[in-house]
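Shapes recur. Our protein:

. . .
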Amino acid sequence: MKLQNLTCIGCPLGCPLQVTMDDAAVVKVEGHTCPRGDAYARKEVINPTRIVTSTVRVKGSKNYIGTVSVKTTSDIPKNKIFDCIKDIKNLTVSAPIRIGDVIKTNVAETGVNIVATKNVL
């Protein structure tokens, strides 16, 4: 049996979690005060994932706004985060951009898209 300590990032409480594992299987999760803590701990020790947020350059904005905030449409594997950032680092899009516009498809070959999170006219 192996014990792993984590701090839950599922909500602002930040519960200290203890995950008991037998080889690659989660046996028990303790310390969580809500169901999200249990789900987070199980996912974090087996296959950690994250939403990635960043910005992308915009040309042609009427309001002289030079960037648009973006995010992945769902979690991507934690080991793909740097590949994701490399994929969007040199992107430039043309205004207007609307919330939810797909900025890049299949980022870092994860099958996940990058979408705008703000309007840029």
User: Anything to note?
Assistant: The first helix runs from residue 35 to 46.
